[in-house]
Design goal:
single chain; 150 residues; 5 helices
């Protein structure tokens, strides 16, 4: 039996699809606090000519602005792709409580792959991590996006 996706992941997947439509790598991110959405973003690297404008980074910045502080205690991040090292570092620095991600990223991911940042002794905050939520849809979006470009 299939269960519906949690609303924040559904929103992240919709943001991801919209990013692909404008030529951005399809990744979407949503930050929630006490179950309410406080910030969203999709990848914006091309649009903003900013290599750090990953969906997670922009959503974290927007969330910090929304609550008026750099630490996002009690907040959760929902993202369609396993975060890279830069984004995982930002997640730790922002003190996000939980990370939910859809598709794994064996090449660029830094949570379950690569440096496994949250397991490093120099990482002072480790969010709870939940992987695979919406994985098939997120992976499908990425495959379709890159199939056209290869």
């Amino acid at each position: 039996m299939a269960f519906p996706l949690p609303a924040p992941m559904r929103l992240a997947l919709d943001l991801s699809a919209a990013a692909a439509e404008v030529g951005e790598v399809p990744v979407g991110a949503v930050v929630t606090r006490h179950g309410e959405v406080i910030a969203t973003s999709a990848n914006m690297m091309i649009k903003s000519t900013d290599p750090t404008a990953h969906a997670e980074m922009v959503a974290i910045r927007r969330a910090a602005e929304a609550i008026g502080q750099p630490r996002l205690d009690g907040c959760d991040l929902w993202v369609t792709l396993e975060p890279c090292a830069m984004c995982a570092g930002a997640i730790a620095l922002a003190r996000l409580q939980r990370l939910y991600y859809a598709a794994e990223d064996p090449k660029g991911g830094a949570v379950a792959h690569g440096p496994r940042l949250f397991g490093q002794p120099t990482c002072h905050h480790r969010p709870e991590v939940y992987a695979g939520i919406g994985e098939a849809e997120a992976a499908g979006q990425l495959r379709a996006f890159f199939a056209v470009r290869r």
